[in-house]
From TrEMBL:
The gene is Sbspon_0. The keyword rRNA-binding does not apply. This is SBSPO protein. Transmembrane segments: none annotated. InterPro entries: SBSPO, SBSPON_C, Somatomedin_B-like_dom_sf, Somatomedin_B_dom, TSP1_rpt, TSP1_rpt_sf, TSP1_spondin_dom. Gene3D superfamilies: Thrombospondin type-1 (TSP1) repeat. The keyword Signal applies.
Length: 245
């Protein structure tokens, strides 16, 4: 006697497959040709034991791996974590989810362990009014006043925390406004050797790259800006004038 049903013939076929054919009882109680392909559930011509012989098996994946390091040091880039397939889906089971996930990432150290260049390190800024006293102290300490430079930035985003300050020494943060151009002075002792740049000045940044800044004296006041240009002859206006720390 010819074997009937899916289990007896060892049939379980993906998709629609007219060759995935057996004989036996169908869901409507009749007997005759019946199918063991995935499409039979829709066409209602499965063999009586299709559901048992070809159970729906969803994809099973492993746990996520640990996050990798940044793809590249000293750049705004991404890190990766992976997982692998433990059980492939069968018989219309749920498809496998993504096996790779990426997240934004920045590393401030090179693979050799040295500090990155300045473009991605958040700039620490304070009011330009502080600079006069700092210049005087530097001149007394060195016997001369080192030449600095200024950088113009366009403010892109500012956190609300810049407005929520009540101390006299933080009032200067009210001058930070989105869309405004600000002038930030780099002078000794913030002028680092041997690079002769201030951290966060965007020297190595790409055109229109968003750079980060943080106001000294209020950790809730921070944001992003774009570097416009460097001014080697420094003449920042009294308002919208700031200092790298």
């Amino acid at each position: 006697r010819r074997a009937s049903g899916c289990a007896a013939r060892g049939l379980c076929c993906p998709g629609r497959d007219s060759a995935c054919l057996s004989v036996g009882r169908r869901p409507d109680g009749s007997t005759g040709p019946c199918y063991c392909d995935q499409a039979c559930a829709r066409t209602l011509d499965c063999c009586h034991d299709y559901a048992q012989a070809c159970p729906v098996i969803p994809c099973v994946v492993s746990q996520w791996s640990a996050w990798s390091g940044c793809a590249e040091p000293c750049k705004t880039t991404y890190r990766v974590r992976m997982r692998h397939v433990i059980q492939e889906p069968r018989n219309g089971g749920e498809a496998c989810p993504a096996l790779e996930e990426r997240a934004g990432c920045v590393e401030y150290w090179t693979r050799q362990g040295t500090e990155c260049q300045q473009s991605l390190i958040p700039a620490l800024i304070t009011t330009g009014g502080f600079g006069k006293a700092r210049k005087k102290r530097a001149a007394v300490a060195d016997g001369s006043e080192r030449a600095g430079y200024c950088v113009e930035f366009q403010l892109v985003a500012i956190t609300p925390g810049c407005l929520h300050n009540h101390h006299s020494y933080t009032r200067w943060m009210h001058y930070l406004r989105e869309g405004h151009t600000v002038c930030v002075e780099c002078q000794h002792p913030a002028l680092h050797s041997p690079s002769q740049h201030c951290y966060g000045d965007g020297t190595d940044s790409q055109k229109n790259q968003l750079l980060h800044w943080q106001a000294v004296g209020n950790h809730r006041c921070k944001g992003t800006w774009r570097r416009i240009r460097q001014l080697d002859t420094c003449s920042c206006p009294s308002v919208h004038s700031f200092l790298f720390i």
